[in-house]
Amino acid sequence: MEDQFKLTETPQLKPKLTASWQAPSNIALVKYWGKHGTQLPANPSISFTLNDCRTITTLTATQSDHHSFEVLLDGKPKPSFAPKIESYFKRIENYSPWIKSYKFKIETTNTFPHSSGIASSASSMAAMSSCIVAMESELTGTKIDKKKASFLARLGSGSACRSLEGKLVVWGEHADTAGSSDLYGVDVSVNLHPIFQDFQDTILLVDKGEKTVSSTLGHELMNGHAFAKARFLQAHSNLTEIKKYLASGDLDGFIKITESEALTLHSMMMTSHPYFMLMKPNTLSIIEEIWKFRNVTKTPVCFTLDAGANVHMLYPAADKEAVEELIKSKLAQYCQNEHYICDHIGNGASAV
Ligand code: PMV
Prior knowledge:
The chain is an alpha+beta fold. Helix content is 35%, strand content 24%. The protein has two domains: 2-189, Ribosomal Protein S5, domain 2; 195-344, 2-Layer Sandwich (Alpha-Beta Plaits). A hairpin with a 3-residue loop joins β2 and β3. It is globular, with a radius of gyration of 20 Å. The two termini are 31 Å apart. The mean pLDDT is 96. (3R)-3-hydroxy-3-methyl-5-(phosphonooxy)pentanoic acid is lined by residues 28, 31-33, 45, 119, 121, 157-159, 215, 219, 265, 306-307.
């Protein structure tokens, strides 16, 4: 299966290549938590592609006898990124062997603050893979293959494979999703109900620090987890169910699955060995305020969480004003320096 991504054309090497691409972050509704092999998911997941939280990467390749790279974040050398990029290049060279004939300069910048607690691995690996695939298309004279970009992004960071397309992407084999694959993300936006087309995601920055437990370790802890089997099965049925709600515009159904998935993800962390907790007291205070507000006003706003303390508030564009008022009056106080980021659903990676 992976072999379909091996280059069959002979690339006509050029002395110098450049490519500039942007890719957004994404927020999972049904969560990927647990993996095997080389970044293969233990269960299928589905996410909204974001719009404003992006990474913009310019890749410059110069033909060389020694394959090497340098990486700059906001124009400054970032040697701490090297190990992740090193292992990414190692994993992709089998599929794009021409990279071994080049040295690379990676210039990258994020539209969201680096120290916001928002993981940039999805957007950065998707932007980087888009650059690689764009260069490959130039060397082979073929068109840009977004499926391969998703495949390569997955090898860098699992959830990154959901950042190439928009607005709704499934990753992982799922009986009820035609074309779904463990190897790459597939765009399933065709059936997305209009109410979700311009859905909002406001990210409340509860904790901007580095995570105490990496998602790599968290995924590993699902091996041998007492509830793993039931959890993986549940993800399949939750995906089937939420797709129905996303197509019909059923906000109550959507909220039920989305919030349950967020809490299940964190329950898995709290019941693994060793157990750990990434939510903070302010995460819970925000959740309680959202529930209270929803009960009283009937505004269809809900939350989800990724592997951290920050809260993503999801709601229809029509409710923007009411939610903004709630944030300003009640929720901003729970955020570090009262910081939050307003984003909405977007269309994935593109050349810049
Ligand atoms: O792609 P990773 O290894 O950073 O894992 C991401 C895991 C979650 O964000 C918690 C869930 C998901 O599906 O994005």
